[in-house]
Amino acid sequence: MKLEPERRVLLVALIISVIAAVIAFFMGNISWSWGFLYGYAISALNFIAMTIGMIQFVKMSPKKAQSAAIGSYFGRMLSIAVAIFLLKFWTAINVWAAMLGFFTLRIAILLEGISYFLPTKRGDKDGR
Predict the structure, then answer these.
(1) What DSSP character marks residue 1?
(2) Cβ–Cβ < 8 Å for 90, 83
(3) What's the pTM value of the predicted model, to 2 decimals?
(4) Structural domain range at position 13
(5) Virtual CA dihedral for 7, 10, 12, 17, nearest 10 degrees?
(6) Is 126 inside a domain boundary?
(7) How does pLDDT run across 41-87, given as a tens digit for each residue?
(8) Residue 125 belongs to some domain of the structure
(9) Is residue 73 part of a domain?
(10) Whole-number Å distance between alpha carbons of 38 and 114
(11) How many domains does the chain have?
């Protein structure tokens, strides 16, 4: 079964976050577990919003797409800033673990990029 690259990136990032959360949980750091999952959730929502926005921007005129992309960027960054600010009040979630959770999606994107250039088996249907 082949997954679309966007879904594959989200799935790999989720797996990384869950593994980190389970390890932190068994080490007795429950706040770190919640932090990894919280960071992943915020990062995944940001990624999904960006993906939906990009699909819409392609259908716009260049000027309108540029202003909409800038607005979308600042809106997404503002939502991340609010999510980080809320961590000040939620003591059940470790801030540092949440910051690490933000990077799981970037790691998954890096892994996706690396896998694109790896040699594939002969006879692969997508021809990469």
Answers:
(1) -
(2) no
(3) 0.81
(4) 5-115
(5) -160
(6) no
(7) 999 999 999 888 888 889 989 899 999 999 999 999 999 899 989 98
(8) no
(9) yes
(10) 26
(11) 1
